[in-house]
Design goal:
Length: about 120
């Protein structure tokens, strides 16, 4: 029975939603500022580009409050999707490279280099 009601509602066209967001503007600003500060702090400490992308993508969502146009709603969604996709791509491009661990031959080579005499006086002519 619930499925039939849902299908009938979808068949009517767009579902009217009196509120675009489930929370008020002040709470949206609060979450956007917290997100901006968090990702800026992480970018300063880690220097990863995706953090900077997210730092500006989150507050950019506040622009939805400027217009009630459906065109702007979908444009903003497309822009946010592109920013998230860019952040995803940069996580793979700017991945931390694993640090080189000294191999056994490298350790043996370093040991051989330390066996050299340090003072020129010890070297016989």
């Amino acid at each position: 029975m619930i499925d039939m009601n849902m299908l009938a509602t979808l068949a009517e066209g767009e579902i009217e939603n009196p509120n675009l967001f489930p929370f008020p503007f002040a709470m949206h600003i609060t979450f956007a500022v917290i997100g901006l500060l968090f990702f800026l702090f992480r970018f300063i400490t880690d220097k990863k580009p995706y953090q900077l992308i997210f730092a500006f993508a989150i507050p950019f969502s506040l622009t939805i409050w400027l217009s009630e146009s459906r065109a702007w709603f979908y444009t903003l969604g497309a822009v946010e999707a592109v920013l998230v996709l860019c952040a995803l791509v940069t996580t793979f491009i700017f991945k931390d490279k694993p640090e080189d661990k000294p191999s056994v031959s490298g350790a043996a080579k370093e040991a051989a280099e330390t066996d050299e005499p340090e003072d020129d006086d010890e070297v016989e002519e």
